[in-house]
Design brief:
1 helix, mainly beta, globular, single chain, four-stranded mixed sheet, Signal recognition particle alu RNA binding heterodimer, srp9/1, about 80 residues
C-alpha cells in the first residue's frame, strides 16, 4: 500500500506508513471520485488502473488520517 500512496521510500517505523486501510468497492471509481471531490474530500491519489491488482483505485484519508481506498474491478 505504501507504494500506491507514495510512501514506499519511508522506513516502516515512520508514522506515515499505514498499518491498515479501509477499502470500499464502488461501481465507478471516477464517478465516486468526482462526487467526493465536490464535497471537499482531498485525495492522496487520483483514480488510476492497477493491472497487477485487477482494480481501478483512488485513495484519501478520513479526518483522523486513516487511509481509505475506493476501487472497482477493471473491465467491469
Amino acid at each position: 500500500m505504501a507504494e500506491a500512496v507514495g510512501n514506499a521510500n519511508q522506513p516502516s517505523s515512520v508514522k506515515c506508513q499505514d498499518r491498515s486501510a479501509l477499502i470500499f468497492a464502488v461501481d465507478n471509481v471516477d464517478e465516486t471520485y468526482q462526487q467526493l471531490t465536490k464535497k471537499d474530500v482531498i485525495f492522496v491519489t487520483q483514480p488510476c488502473d492497477r493491472p497487477d491488482w485487477g482494480t481501478r483505485t483512488a485513495h484519501f484519508r478520513d479526518p483522523d488520517g486513516n487511509l481509505i481506498e475506493i476501487n472497482s474491478n477493471l473491465g467491469s
